[in-house]
Amino acid sequence: MTRERTFEIQPEEQVRYRVQFTTTRGRVTKFVVQLEVEISGEWKPIVRYNTAHGRPHRDLHRLDGTVTKQRLDMSFNDALTYAIKEIKDNWREVCGKMAQRLENFYRQRNWELATEISLYLIEHPEVDIPHGAVIIPQVPGDRRFNAWAKRVALKDRPKEQPVVYFYVEELVPARSRVAQARIKVA
């Protein structure tokens, strides 16, 4: 008799792990155990244990989308138990590392947006920004980044300093700024 079980556990806000497994006559025939964090309204995998490709393994996910695979040399039953125990024992540490990576990602994004906003304001002198204002980049639909950017910008701001929320509706792909060139083929 084949039986499939699926459930999720959310140990705290914005962190969950999902478990799905199939057994036949008491033996695990396939499984997925995935630890996820909610980033900008979307659930992103951090670590996934599964039996895709016929072997138990662990996938470590990074914010840049790359994945590192590690084989687990054990039975499906043992690997499923191991995966659940590893996530239970280490989710705080793993999520802490992801939080640090996310902080770095937000910093980089903030710098990139600050550069683009500066260039935009240089190219659009008609846009009126109060003198001495702190500009807070905002990305529609990314409430976590927006809250982070607001928190960082307002942390040490004097109360009398004007605040401007700059909503970046769209970024076009970067283009070359070369206005003129001369090419010589050797």
Describe the structure.
This protein is of the alpha+beta class. It has two domains: 2-102, no CATH class; 104-167, no CATH class. It is 32% helix and 34% strand. The strands form two sheets. A six-stranded antiparallel β-sheet has the order 1-2-3-4-5-6, with helices on one face. The protein has a two-stranded parallel ribbon with strand order 7-8. A hairpin with a 5-residue loop joins strand 5 (57-61) and strand 6 (67-71). It is elongated and about 75 Å long. 13% of the residues are buried. The model has no long low-confidence stretch (mean pLDDT 89).
Give the strand order of the largest sheet, numbering strands 1, 2, ... along the chain: 1-2-3-4-5-6
What's the average pLDDT?
89
What is the β-strand count? 8
Roughly how many Å is the radius of gyration? 24 Å
In percent, how helical is the residue content? 25-40%
Which key terms come to mind for this protein?
186 residues, elongated, six-stranded antiparallel β-sheet, 34% strand, 8 strands, two-stranded parallel sheet, single chain, 2 domains, 2 helices, alpha+beta
Produce the secondary structure layout:
Layout: E1 2-12, E2 15-24, E3 27-39, E4 42-50, E5 57-61, E6 67-71, H1 76-123, E7 134-138, H2 143-154, E8 163-167
Parallel strand pairs: 7-8
Antiparallel strand pairs: 1-2, 2-3, 3-4, 4-5, 5-6
